[in-house]
Write a structure and sequence with these properties.
- The complex is a heterodimer of chains A (407) and B (76).
- Chain A has a single domain (4-406), classed as Porin, CATH 2.40.160.
- The longest helix of chain A has 12 residues, at 6-17.
- By secondary structure, chain A is an all-beta fold.
- Chain A is globular, with a radius of gyration of 23 Å.
- In chain A, 39% of the residues are buried.
- Chain A has 1 helix and 21 strands.
- Chain B is flat, with a radius of gyration of 18 Å.
- Chain B starts with a helix and ends in a 17-residue tail after the last helix.
- The chains are: A mainly beta (407), B mainly alpha (76).
- At the A-B interface, helix 1, strand 1, strand 2, strand 7 and strand 8 of A face helix 1 and helix 2 of B.
Chain lengths: 407, 76
């Protein structure tokens, strides 16, 4: 099962990306990307392969139609009962194996005019224990002689989460976890039930060119999530027994970011900075800072080096040991809700060709783009332990290979 | 303190609106050569950037307010 609230935001991002470039009539574009994410260290390794393909056709200058598919193929190991007694059993070595495939199909329509653009999209995500429907609407317009761009979008998600049916259980501390996804979304299986999850995301951004070499962007996002937000497979040791983790049903998340890019003419490159502040009503707070430099070579090659720092405070109800230090009525075994820091550094390479550039003869293609990207990420979880053991799998690598063709 | 902050915010909004309304353009079209460079376009990391955000938002407790693609150079 994937983290739920990111699905609507991903759809929202996808919708915005679909209006990234100006369109010419009677053209088509095909993108194919694959990202590999591998988290390693000890027995809790995790491998996620994310292939993605998109097609965009432009039957007229004012109209673009997009369709796409992506998947998350997940395999690895996780701890089913967090902080269970481990006097003679190493809780990490007893981790359970998991394999899952999440698929998302999507489609969208963008309409343009001299005054701006309107867009709408739909995405359907499905896996063995989770389904999602996400609708996104967006609008964009330029102002101040086209030196400013304003963009607004709204996404609505309707998700369903599979769980163990426990009609006689009244208290959260008595709920058992779901052990396998078999039987999910099968109406005849009385051992399974479905929880609803509703998501609403709002986003607004203002992009402004202040000088011929300097541009900024301010983005605000708000998200309301209402429904079952626990991981049904994860249980937390509460002292005498373990119960399925229990998160609040309502979450209000808001984030604000400021980004700037500065062109350095003597170097033929650009420096970019990005800072984001985040907070939600679970009292998770975070700051993200990113710095990048992108070098352009001969107009067709771009090399980008980037570094990112992330720091986060724990949710109000997070505890590393609920048997000794309970934190109210909610309990979680999710390390993503604990204190954490992460450091990321990476490089990306883009080779873009158009007919005539570098003497290229592209045949029926009007452009060709090859993208390579590699990152290393290190996480620190100072407040999270599996029994007495620190999180072992706190290093990861991520690589992306992409190809974009336009006809 | 709160009142002075509100006055400052109103002043900034009015100043920006006045700039646009008066036709006092900050960057004229012939000066936008560098702004049209992909390196100066927000979200120019494209799908690779989206996939990075997708992975990170699943490993961290926060999400949102990522880069919004394009804008600024008046090229689209």
């Amino acid at each position: 099962m994937r983290s739920t609230s990111t699905i609507a935001l991903a759809a929202l991002t996808l919708s915005i990306a679909s209006v990234a470039a100006p369109a010419r009539a009677d053209t088509a574009e095909i993108d194919a990307y694959t990202t590999l994410f591998y988290e390693f260290g000890g027995p809790l390794e995790m491998l996620i392969v994310n292939p993605r393909a998109n097609v965009r056709v432009n039957p007229a200058e004012e109209v673009s139609i997009t369709a796409g598919y992506e998947a998350d193929v997940v395999s690895g190991a996780s701890v089913a009962v967090v902080d269970a007694p481990s006097s003679d059993v190493d809780v990490i070595s007893s981790a359970t194996r998991l394999e899952d495939v999440r698929s998302v199909v999507n489609g969208g329509l963008t309409l343009r005019s001299p005054f701006g653009s309107l867009r709408g999209s739909y995405a359907y995500g499905f896996e063995s224990d989770y389904t999602s429907h996400s609708f996104t609407l967006g609008a964009r317009t330029d102002a101040f002689e086209r030196t400013a761009t304003f963009d607004l979008s709204y996404a609505r998600g309707f998700d369903s989460v599979c769980d163990l049916n426990q009609p006689r259980v009244q208290e959260a501390v008595e709920r058992r976890r779901l052990d396998v996804s078999a039987g999910c979304f099968d109406d005849t299986n009385m051992d399974r039930m479905t929880h609803d999850l509703a998501l609403q995301s709002f986003q607004g951004s203002w992009t402004q060119a202040w000088a011929p070499i300097f541009v900024t962007q301010v983005t605000l996002t708000g998200q309301l999530i209402d429904g079952f937000q626990s991981n049904p497979y994860r249980a937390v040791w509460l002292g005498r027994s373990a119960a399925q983790e229990h998160h609040p049903d309502n979450r209000f998340r808001y984030a604000a970011s400021v980004a700037a890019r500065l062109w350095i003419e003597p170097l033929n490159g650009a420096v970019s900075v990005f800072v984001r502040a985040y907070r939600d009503n679970w009292d998770v707070r975070s700051i993200t800072a990113q710095l990048a430099y992108e070098q352009t070579i001969d107009g067709s090659i771009r090399i980008r080096a980037h570094a990112r720092y992330y720091t986060q405070g724990a949710a109000a109800f997070f505890s590393d040991d609920y048997s000794l230090r309970p934190r109210g009525q909610y309990f979680t075994g999710d390390r993503e809700l604990s204190d954490q820091e992460s450091f990321m550094a990476g490089l990306s390479f883009v080779w873009a060709l158009t007919p005539g550039s570098e003497g290229a003869d592209l045949g029926p293609l009007s452009s060709f783009r090859l993208v390579l990207k590699a990152d290393f990420i290190h996480h620190e979880f100072p407040g999270f332990r599996y029994a007495r053991a620190s999180v072992p799998n706190n290093n990861s690598i991520m690589g992306t290979l992409g190809l974009e063709l336009a006809f | 303190m709160r009142r002075s902050f509100s006055k400052l915010a109103i002043a900034v909004v009015l100043a920006i609106t006045s700039l646009g309304a008066s036709g006092c353009v900050l960057v004229r079209p012939e000066q936008r050569e560098f702004l049209a460079e992909p390196a100066m376009t927000f979200g120019s990391e494209g799908i690779a950037g989206e996939q990075e955000e997708h992975v990170l938002s699943n490993r961290e407790g926060s999400a949102g307010a990522g880069a919004v693609t394009g804008g600024g150079c008046g090229c689209n």
